[in-house]
Amino acid sequence: MLRLEAAVPEFSPVPTVSTTAAFLANVRESAGLIRLDVSLARPVPFAAGQFAMVNLAGEHSLVFSRPFSILSATEERMSFLYRVVGRGTAALAGLRAGQELTILGPLGRPFPGPGAVGGKPVVLIAGGVGLPPLHNWLTRHGRPGDLGFFGGRDGQDIPWQLLDERWQISVDERTDIPAGREAWPGRVADFAARHAALQGAQPRVVFSCGPIPMLKAVAELAAARGWACHVSLEEHMGCGYGACKGCVVPVVDDGGAGWRNATCCVEGPVFSADEIRWDRYGKPAVPLPTIEG
Amino acid sequence: MALQLPAWWKIDPTAPFELGPRRLPGRIWTASGCFAYGLTGHDFAAPGFASPYEGLGAVVTKTVTPAPRAGNPMPRLAETACGAINSIGLENVGFDRFCDEVLPELERRGVPTVASLAATRPAEFGTMAARLHRVAGGFAHWHGVEVNLSCPNVAEGGHDFGRDPATVAECVAAARAELPDRALLAKLTPNITDITELSGAAINAGADAVSAINTVLGLEVDLTTGQPVLPRRFGGYSGPAVLPIALAKVDEIVQKTGGKVVGVGGIATATDALKFFALGAVAVQVGTAQMRDPFAAARIARELRPG
C-alpha cells in the first residue's frame, strides 16, 4: 500500500462527504463546553473517533475549517462539542438560527470497533473537549463492563447531562457538584488508575482523548498494566484530509532517526499509544529563537 | 446562485490549451502544497461532482526535493483574519519515491500532473528533469514541471536563491535542457522589489510561463508568550489577503515583459479566478482555498464554463 498521505483508509465504510448544514442550536453542556447541533443536507455516516471539518459557509467562512470529533449523528442531524478558544470557535458560538455551515467528513481513522478489542472490556478516559469520540463509542458499542472516566476542573466544567451512570467523574476542585451526582478529586488518569473496577488481572483496552499530558499519563497507566491503548490526538489542522502537512505528530519509525512525522488527520487522529514518540511531542526540531535585549 | 459570467469571458477553462510544447487539459489547477500529491480525496463525494479532480487542468504536486525532508517543527500553521501563514518546510517523500511511486500512480489514476521540484543547486533541476523525462516521458497525464524557486521556509535555499535573476535563469535553463516535450514553469517569489526581473530571467532561460505568486513573507505573534507563533518566526502568507498582491504582480509581469503567467494567490472563487484571466493569465492555481474545500478548484472550473 502506498503510504504517502491519504491512501483510502481501509476501514472507512463510506466516502468523505462535502455537504452543507444548517445551524440548529448551541447548547451549553457545562460552563465551558458547548454542544453544536446542525441539520445535515446529506447524511454523513461515520465511525466513533472520526471527525469532520466544520466551517461557516459563504462570505463568512474562516480561512481554515475546524476539526471536530463527532459527538453523535443521525441521517439528518449531527452534534459536536467545543470550547471557545479562538476565532473559529467564537464564530461558531455566534451562529444564528438557519445560518449555513459546511461539513467535510467523516475524516481520519476511528477507534477500533467493538469487534477489534478482542472481547476485552474497554476503558474510556476523556478530558474536556476530548469527550465526543469516546462518548460516541460508548453509546454505540458499549457493553456491560465497559467504563468511562471524564475529568474536568470543577463541577461547573462537567457536562453532567451527557454523562450517565457509565461515566466516573473526577475534578481538580470538588466544587459545584450538583445534588445527586458525584465527582472524585484528582486528575482523571490518576483517578482511573486507582479506581476499584480497574484493579485485578482482567486485561482491558484503553481509549483516550484529551490534552497531551493527560494522554501521556493514560498511555503510561495502560503500559504499566500491559493493556492496549489507543489515543485520539487533538491537533490544529489546516485541511483535515492530508493535503497540507500542517498537523504532523512524531511517531515511531524503524528508519535511522527512530521517528517520523505522521499526518494526524489521515494517519490519525487515533493512534496506538505505543506508536507515539511522546518524548518528541511538541519538541521543536530546531532551537527556538529568542528576542534579544 | 450561479455566477453571471462577464461578456468578455469566452474561454472554456476545462478545454485543452497549449503551453509551450505541451497541450494541457485545462486552465484551472491546484497549487503546489495545497492538494498533496494529487492522490488524496479520490473517494470524496460532493453533490454533482464525480470527484475533486473533475475539470482540473493540472494538480501541481507538493514540491519534492532530491532527498526526503521531515519539514519544520510544529506548529506549522497560523490563521489570521484574512489569510494563513504556513511554515511546513517542504516536508516531502523525496524525488526517488516521487518518481517510483507517486508519478506512476498519478498516471494510473489519470490525474493531470505538473511536478513541482525544488533543489539547492541549479544543476539538480536538470538532473531531476532528466530523470522525469526518462521515467515518465511516455505518460499521458504528466504535463510539465514547475520549478519552485521561492519557498520561504527552507533555510538553505529559500528566498535568496529565488531572488537572484541569474540563479533563476540557471535553474530554469538546467530544467529546460532536459524537458523537450513538457511545459516548464517557474514559480516566483513576490518578496522582491521588481518581480519582472525574475520573470524576464525565467522566460528568457526557456520557461514557458511563470507561476505568480508564491506566498508573501508573514509573521504572527502569540501574545500569551510574546513570541512568534511559528518556531521559525516567519512563514508564507496566503489566502484571500494576498489576492490583490498577486493580481498586481501578475499585471506587472504581463505589462512589462509580456511573458505568460499562471496566476496564483488568494483564489477562492470563480470571481477571483476571472480577475487573473482578465489581466492575461493563461491559467490559474487554487491554493489555500483547496485546503478548506477539496472541491474548490473543481467548482471554479465548472462555474467558469461559458453557456
Walk me through the topology.
The complex is a heterodimer of chains A (293) and B (307).
Chain A: E1 17-28, E2 33-40, E3 51-56, E4 66-73, E5 77-83, H1 87-93, E6 100-107, E7 122-127, H2 131-141, E8 147-152, E9 167-171, E10 184-185, H3 188-194, E11 205-209, H4 212-225, E12 228-232, E13 248-252, E14 259-263, H5 264-267, E15 270-272
Parallel strand pairs in A: 7-8, 7-11, 8-9, 9-10, 11-12
Antiparallel strand pairs in A: 1-2, 1-6, 2-5, 3-4, 3-6, 4-5, 12-15, 13-14
Helix pairs in contact in A: 3-4
Chain B: E1 17-19, E2 22-24, E3 28-30, E4 58-60, E5 77-79, E6 84-86, H1 95-109, E7 113-117, H2 122-136, E8 142-148, H3 158-163, H4 165-176, E9 183-187, H5 195-204, E10 209-212, E11 216-219, E12 221-222, E13 227-228, E14 234-238, H6 243-257, E15 261-264, H7 270-278, E16 283-286, H8 288-292, H9 296-303
Parallel strand pairs in B: 3-4, 3-16, 4-7, 7-8, 8-9, 9-10, 10-15, 15-16
Antiparallel strand pairs in B: 1-2, 5-6, 6-14, 11-14, 12-13
Helix pairs in contact in B: 1-2, 2-4, 4-5, 5-6
Describe what this molecule looks like in 3D:
- The complex is a heterodimer of chains A (293) and B (307).
- Chain A is of the alpha/beta class and 293 residues long.
- Helices cover 15% and strands 31% of the residues of chain A.
- The longest helix of chain A is centred in the last third of the chain and has 14 residues, at 212-225.
- Helices cover 31% and strands 20% of the residues of chain B.
- In chain B, the strands form 4 sheets. In chain B, strands 3-4-7-8-9-10-15-16 form an 8-stranded parallel beta barrel, surrounded by 7 helices.
- Chain B is globular, with a radius of gyration of 18 Å.
- Chains A and B meet through strand 1 of A and helix 1, strand 13 and helix 8 of B.
Outline:
The complex is a heterodimer of chains A (293) and B (307). By secondary structure, chain A is of the alpha/beta class.
